[in-house]
Amino acid sequence: MKKKYVLLILVLLLIPAAILAIILLKPGEKKPVTLTLWHNYGGQMKDTMDEMIEEFNGTVGAKEGVFISVTSISGSSTLHDKLTMAANGDPGAPSLPDITTAYPKTALILAEKGLLVNLEEQFSDEELAKYIPRFIEEGRLNGDDLYVFPTAKSTEVLFVNTTIFDRFAADTGVTLEDLKTFEGIMNTSKLYYEWTDKQTPDIPNDGKTFYVPDSVFNLSYIGCKQLGSEFIQNNAINFTNPDTKTVWETFMTPATQGQFAIFEGYASDLAKTGDIVCSTGSTAGVAFFPPTVTYPDNTTEDAKLTILPYPTFEGGEKIAIQRGAGMCVIKSNPEKERMAGIFLKWFTSPENNLHFVASTGYLPVTEEAFGDIMLKEMDNISDENIQNLLQVSREMQAQYDFCISPLFDGVDLLQSNYETNIKAMATDSKEQYLFLLQSETAEDALGNTLDGKYEEFMKEFE
Amino acid sequence: MEKLHKLLIHKIQKSRQVSISMRLRLFFFLLVLVFTMIAGIIVILLVTGTFSAGISASRQLLRDELTHSSKDISAQYGELSVQAIEFSKELTQKIDDNLKQQDILFSGLSDHPEKIEELVTDLFENTYYSLQKSNCSGAFFILDTTVNTSLPNSEYSKAGLYIKNMEPNIISATSPTFTILRGFSDIGRSNSIDLHTQWSMEFDVKDADYYKLPIEAYGKHKEIPISKLYYWSEPMQLPGTSEEVMVCTVPMIGPRNNVYGVCGFEISSMLFKLSHMPSNSTYSRMFCMLSPFGGNRVEINRSMFAGGYSVKEISKDNTELSVKEGKKSFITYISNNSNVYLGIQSAIQLYPGGSPFADKKWITAVLVPKEDIVDSITRLNIVLVCLLSLLITIGITISIVFSNKYLKPISKGIEIIKSENKEEAPKTNVQEIDDLINYLVLYQKELTKKVEQDKIQISMLEQFVTKTKTLTPAEHSVFNLYVKGLTAKEIADELFLSINTIKTHSKRIFAKLEIASREELLLYINMLKEIGLELK
Question: Can you give the pTM of this predicted structure?
Answer without folding.
Answer: 0.78
